[in-house]
Design brief:
With 409 residues, the chain is α+β, with helices and mostly antiparallel strands. Among the domains are: 135 residues, no CATH class; 140 residues, Heat Shock Protein 90. The chain is 61% helix and 9% strand. It contains eleven helices and five strands, in the order αααααααααβαββαββ. α10 links the parallel β1 and β2. The two termini are 49 Å apart.
Length: 409
């Protein structure tokens, strides 16, 4: 920081001491110019009283920040009285006191009244000079008016600069808050996306492991072949679950560590056959129908369609006693409709476990499906029908093919 910067910092820290120094400097300059040297030989006047009045007018500057209007009135009146009583023609530096007060009024008082009062004070002082000191009606009076206007303009400029700096600081603080909020929002969205992926991918495999483990346990004593087959499915599902979990965790590694893939390979409807095969192997009977011409979906819509089918059929496998489902894919001109019916849920409440419904505490599957579908501008419903079946229905619009799966919330 240069010398001027240090001086400004010191003035800001000790504003009242700086004002007192200004007041003392103006008073000293007034006395030196009025009574110093040859100017001491004055004719007439009341020098002692004039010095006291000058001290009052200049001393008032010490409180210019607290009471700028009062200081302007006192310093202006004292300056005119001093010029009238001093008997000197060289004491015009006393006018530095009201000029400094004019600057302070323009700087600290509200802009419109400050400009009005400042201009009025300059005009009044000019008139008083013209009446009491006709000699000042010439260049000196014009110079005083110019200095008064300059003081007002400088004070107004200081006010504008201070307001500008305050606005810049507010904008910087607001931008920083918005950046922090945006960062927190992105983190929350990413956490939600990871939670959905873990639930949809790993949760599906763990559900199959649980089902096949139960099958193996029940068949172990009387049907060794069925138990061995169930354990084979458990091993396969465990391997897939570990792979998907490893891919997800890899993305959470810190930058600079070992090379990692940039994204989890996103499944889609091209992997639907493998999904249905694994579910059928676990004991679920699936009736699959496709209507319309099969059209490619954008990555985000493709992933969402796969997750909806996966979660819906997994729920049927876990919560339905009959373990029989119907999957319908209907390709229209602008959208794909997916319908999954739990055909074993019959009767008033069906044979389906009511804990699979979205309102049950701790069940996130249907909530996650709804969020995924709505995020793409689709429609989603899930609940029992009048015939006693439980149906999940999702309608996905065809998204632009350049929509990347990582953009899915």
């Amino acid at each position: 920081m240069n010398a001027i910067g240090h001086l400004r910092s010191a003035v800001r820290r000790h504003a009242h001491l700086a004002d007192a120094a200004i007041a003392l400097s103006v008073f000293a300059a007034t006395l030196v110019t009025a009574y110093g040297g040859h100017s001491a030989a004055v004719t007439g006047g009341r020098p002692v009283a004039a010095v006291a009045v000058a001290a009052l007018g200049c001393g008032a500057l010490a409180g210019r920040r607290r009471r700028p209007l009062a200081v302007l009135g006192v310093s202006a009146a004292a300056a005119e009285v001093f010029l009238a009583w001093s008997g000197s023609t060289s004491g015009e530096l006393v006018l530095l006191a009201p000029l400094t007060a004019l600057y302070t009024v323009a700087d600290l008082v509200e802009r419109r009244p400050a400009l009005f009062l400042g201009a009025g004070a300059v005009a009044a002082l000019a008139v008083v000079h013209a009446v009491n000191k006709p000699s000042l009606l010439g260049p000196q009076n014009v110079a005083f008016i110019a200095l008064g206007g300059l003081a007002i303009a400088a004070g107004d400029s200081s006010r504008n600069r201070r307001a500008y700096l305050a606005e810049v600081e507010q904008r910087a603080e607001r931008a920083e808050r918005e950046r922090e909020q945006d960062a927190r929002r992105r983190i929350a969205e990413e956490r939600l996306r990871i939670a959905r992926d873990l639930h949809d991918a790993v949760g599906h495999q763990l559900a199959l492991i649980s089902v096949q483990s139960n099958v193996a346990g029940q068949a172990l004593d009387h049907d060794v072949a069925s138990a061995r087959e169930a354990l084979t499915h458990v091993k396969s599902a465990s391997r897939r679950a570990l792979g998907e979990l490893r891919d997800t965790v890899t993305l959470l590694r810190q930058p600079g560590e070992t090379a990692t893939p940039t994204e989890i390979p996103a499944p889609g409807l091209d992997g639907l056959q493998e999904l249905l095969a694994s579910l059928c192997a676990s004991g679920l009977s699936i009736d699959r129908t496709v209507e319309g011409t099969v059209l490619p979906l954008a990555p985000a819509a493709d992933l969402t369609a796969y997750r909806v089918i996966q979660e819906s059929l997994t729920n049927v496998r876990k919560h339905s006693k009959g373990r029989k489902a119907r999957l319908s894919l209907s390709y229209a001109r602008d959208e794909l409709r997916i319908t999954v019916d739990d055909l074993a849920a019959t009767g008033p409440a069906g044979e389906r476990d009511l804990s699979a419904r979205p309102e049950a505490a701790g069940r996130h599957g249907i909530v996650g499906m709804r969020e995924r579908v709505l995020a793409l501008g689709g429609r989603f419903t899930a609940g029992p029908r009048t015939d006693g079946t439980f149906q999940v229905s999702a309608t996905l619009p065809y998204q632009p093919l350049d929509l990347a799966p990582e953009n899915l919330p």
